[in-house]
Structure formats: structure tokens, C-alpha cells
Amino acid sequence: QLQLVESGGGLVQAGGSLRLSCVASGRTRTGYAMGWFRQAPGKAREFVAVISWSGLTTYFADSVKGRFTISRDSAKNTVHLQMNSLQPEDTAVYYCAADEGPPVMEAHRFDYWGQGTQVTVSS
Q1: Looking at residue 76, what is its pLDDT?
Q2: 104, 93 in Cβ contact below 8 A?
Q3: Which of 68, 83, 98, 116 is surrounded by the fewest CB atoms within 10 Å?
Q4: Are the C-beta atoms of 21 and 80 separated by less than 8 Å?
Q5: Three-state SS for 5?
Q6: pLDDT of residue 118
Q7: Which among 81, 91, 72, 92 has a CA at the least distance from the CA of 32?
Q8: What is the pLDDT, as a whole number, of residue 52?
Q9: Which of 62, 34, 37 is nearest to 50 (CA)?
Q10: Rounded CA gap, 123 and 13, in Å?
């Protein structure tokens, strides 16, 4: 089993930045791709970004390309999502997820999920 705990959410004005972190514990010796998803009120959960176990491969949703970056520190079992130029439409609960396999963008492929952290962007 793998446990994921997110942190770093909060309230920020449009144009601002936030850095989300996700710490994994438990069965961390297995290689996991790590992803971020988000869910706004009344909307389906959507893919944001994913990074491979090696950190060499990343994918981003079109809506965040050029604004968000994803990185990982495998020694600390941590993945980060740096979010810049935030807009009100980025408001959502952000979830960290882990997948025992290659980096993918489909939520149903991820085996483990965190509880989420709220990000609110005011206009």
C-alpha cells in the first residue's frame, strides 16, 4: 500500500503562484509514476500533469502547459506541482495520485490517491 498526502493549497489572487507537494509513504520502493488531477465543483475530475518514476517524462494538460511544472525528489518520495500565472478557472481540489507503471493521463489507471488540497484563485 502507498499513502499520499498533499499540501500547499490555499487562496491566491489571479496571476499568483502556488507550489503543491505530495509526500508518499508506505511501499515506496516500487517505481511509481506520479500525477496531479483536479476537480472543480460540479465538474468531473480532470488530468493536470504526470511525471515518470525516472523524472524524465512529463505530460501536461493543454490548459496548464507553460504555466505549471511538475518535479519529483525520489529520495524524499515527494512530487511537486509548481503553478504559476494562476487563473480563477484553476480553482479546484487538487489530488495527487500514483500509478505502478508508465506515466498516463487517465484517472482510472492510477492505483493510489491522496485526500486532496484546495486551491482557490480569486479574480
Answers
A1: 83
A2: no
A3: 116
A4: yes
A5: strand
A6: 98
A7: 72
A8: 94
A9: 34
A10: 6
Q: What is the pLDDT of residue 31?
A: 83
Distances (CA, A) of 116 to 8, 29, 37, 38, 64: 10, 23, 9, 8, 18
- CB distance 32 to 53 below 8 Å: yes
User: What is residue 105's predicted lDDT score, i.e. its pLDDT?
Assistant: 94
Three-state secondary structure string covering 29-78:
CCCCEEEEEEECCCCCCEEEEEECCCCCCEEECCCCCCCEEEEEEHHHCE
C-alpha neighbours within 13 Å on the C-beta side of residue 108: 1
CB 8 within 8 A of CB 21: yes
Q: How far apart are CA 106 and CA 33, in angstroms?
A: 12
* Spatial separation of the C-alpha atoms in residues 75 and 100, rounded to whole Å: 17
Which pLDDT tens digit goes with each residue over 11-35?
A: 999 999 999 999 999 887 678 999 9
d(CA 37, CA 39): 7
pLDDT < 70: residue spans in the chain: 29
